[in-house]
């Protein structure tokens, strides 16, 4: 088991698709595994955030990934 609130995702063409998450992540968000599985079929991780933060956080994560790939 993975400790803490963890969600794994893959990035395809700037889309952050959640592919796996643990029970602590469900508990932290207050949703069941079934609810989150259904949610992530058509939504990315940023859709859980307040709309006013989505673009900024996504751009920062993309920038961070870009920097990692240069090293």
List the helices and strands and how they pair.
Blueprint: E1 7-12, E2 15-21, H1 23-29, H2 33-42, H3 51-70
Antiparallel strand pairs: 1-2
What does this entry show, briefly?
52% of the residues lie in helices and 18% in strands.
Number of strands: 2
List unreliable stretches of 5+ residues: none
Order of neighbouring strands in the sheet with most strands: 1-2
What is the CA-CA span between the terminal residues?
Answer: 30 Å
Please give the count of helices. 3
Strand content is 15-25%
Return the structural class: alpha+beta
The ordered string of helix (H) and strand (E) elements is EEHHH
Q: C-alpha Rg, in Å?
A: 13 Å
Largest sheet: 2 strands, antiparallel
Average per-residue pLDDT, rounded, comes to 89
Report helical residue fraction.
40-55%
Approximate shape? globular
Explain this structure to me?
- With 71 residues, this protein is of the alpha+beta class.
- It is 52% helix and 18% strand.
- It is built from 3 helices and 2 strands.
- The radius of gyration is 13 Å and the shape is globular.
Features:
globular; 3 helices; 71 residues; alpha+beta
């Amino acid at each position: 088991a993975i400790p803490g609130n963890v969600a794994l995702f893959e990035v395809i063409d700037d889309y952050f698709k959640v592919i796996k998450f643990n029970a602590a992540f469900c508990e932290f968000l207050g949703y069941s595994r079934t609810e989150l599985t259904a949610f992530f079929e058509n939504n990315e991780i940023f859709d859980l955030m307040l709309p006013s933060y989505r673009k900024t956080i996504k751009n920062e994560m993309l920038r961070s990934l870009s920097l990692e790939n240069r090293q």
